[in-house]
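S., here's the first fold you wanted:
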Amino acid sequence: MFEPEVFDNTDYESRLAYNHELMTLVAVEFVKEATTLLGVLQAHMADEDWDNFALVAHRLKGAALEVSGYRFCRLIAEMEKLSIKRESGLLPTSYVTLNDEFKALVLALNQEVLR
């Protein structure tokens, strides 16, 4: 069982009306989309394109909420705020942490939903 901060299976089940087929579909799509968006996020960070960084971060935040990935969601929300304020100094370190959080969330989804 994972900490609810990483993945809240009870919330996820409730959010998707205990439809395990739908839960699997949403989890698979989240992993695919988030993997792509993390790469896009890194490119925007490298280009110092903070407007598009914030847009992608917002999209990732919504996707993480869909799968009840609360710690990932909190971190990406903080990164979104930093990019909007143009306070980019912490973003490279936060991006590394975000990738670690993504791996933890994918592991939790694999063990709790995609088993």
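And the second, which I think is the more interesting of the pair:
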Amino acid sequence: MDAYKEKFEITDRTIFALGLDIYTNYPLTPDLLVHELCHLKQQERIGVKEWAYDFLENPQKRLEFELEAYRAQILSVKDRNQRDQIRRQSAIDLSSSLYGNIITRDQAFTLLKV
């Protein structure tokens, strides 16, 4: 976590998936669980060390990882209005310091269309 704290804003509300674990201080909603499970599947697919390195050092790969996870999260919600709310919040989060300001909010909103 120290490596992540050096690059990103980590708060008590930050959720992080690594290896076989999901680290959180709060119960996850079903859609957030889908998001985090997507990261665990990514790590299984390419390897935990490579995933962690790419997440930390490669903003384009970080964006790819997060877009995949946010899209899965959004698609997991059946209610259209709730899905739109999650898309809007996801765009805010994805364009924030949480991910190193790798994209604008408008770009994120467009890329999160499912």
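Why I say that: The first helix runs from residue 2 to 7. Residues 13 and 25 are 7 Å apart (CA to CA).

Talk tomorrow,
H.
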